[in-house]
Amino acid sequence: MEPLTLALAKGRTTSASLSVFEKAGIDFPDFHADSRKLIFFDTSGKIKLIFVKAVDVPTYVEKGAADIGIVGKDNILEAQADIYEMLDLKLGKCKVAVAGSAETDRLSNQSLTVASKYPAIAKNHFQKKGQSVETIKLNGSVELAPLIGLADVIVDIVETGTTLKENGLSIIEEIEEISTRLIVNKASFATKSEVIHPLIQQLQGALEEAKA
Ligand code: PRP
Questions:
Q1: Is 123 in the same domain as 54?
Q2: Whose CA, among 32, 94, 101, 110, lies 20 to 30 Å from 22?
Q3: Parent domain of 202
Q4: One digit per residue, pLDDT tens: the chain, 212 residues?
Q5: What three-state secondary structure class fits 182?
Q6: Ligand 1 atom closest to Cα of 162?
Q7: Domain tally for the chain?
Q8: For ligand 1, atom 7, which residue shows the shortest CA distance?
């Protein structure tokens, strides 16, 4: 039987995610986050791990290049991918929020410019409130944007709040709680259910054991 392909997000939660698999009895003995190799197999040879950029995980899963994926809710929301979200690994907890400086006219400005790594999340959020915004896509150091007049506010990840604080910014609105999730390709969910369902149960068991 073909192995199940798992797309694992590169980043802060990589090793904690793999620990959950380990606790569930699934080991990837050759895996090293700093290796240049991109494909790894578990000991049984039944799971093929592909190690990819977090932002790309929903695409791999939606297109069926991977059957399942482990990635943050932020990237899932931003990708708007047609996938099933099956399990919350409760790792990498943070939030996506609107933030700005104290002088920001608490979002009443009609022509608001929003800088973000997550332009789709930002656009959806303001659209729901009936406020039209111009979004500017940035790839990092987003907190700089309101400080140098590139944007009125930002939509970004807030974990400890240190980056906001150190740049004189604060949360204006919280948009969404974020954590690492397991996502599944819709076709694989039906055709490979005899592998995917037990795997989800194993992982769920490992998470509950860790909690106890
Ligand atoms: C993320 C995020 C914030 C920061 C939040 O950036 O975009 O800037 O972490 O964390 P904090 O609330 O604990 O300070 P990252 O470190 O990924 O770097 P980047 O700005 O280059 O994207």
A1: no
A2: 94
A3: 4-92+179-211
A4: 799 999 999 999 999 999 999 999 999 999 998 989 999 999 999 999 999 999 999 999 999 999 999 999 999 999 999 999 999 999 999 999 999 997 766 566 568 999 999 999 999 999 999 998 999 999 999 999 999 999 999 999 999 999 999 999 999 999 999 999 999 999 999 999 999 999 999 999 999 988 77
A5: strand
A6: 14
A7: 2
A8: 157
The CATH number linked to 38 is: 3.40.190.10
Pocket lining for ligand 1, CB < 6 angstroms: 140-143, 156-163
Q: Does one domain contain both 195 and 172?
A: no
93, 163, 174, best to mutate for ligand 1 pocket (most atoms within 8 Å of CB): 163
Q: Among the atoms of ligand 1, which is closest to the Cα of residue 12? A: 17
Tell whether 102 and 85 lie within a shared domain. Answer: no
Cα of 167 from ligand 1 centre, angstroms:
12
Strands in 47-53's sheet, in edge-to-edge order, are 39-41, 47-53, 4-10, 68-72, 180-184, 84-88
In a shared domain, residues 84 and 127 = no
CB 16, CB 91: distance < 8 Å: yes
Phi, psi of 92 (to 5 degrees): 60, 40
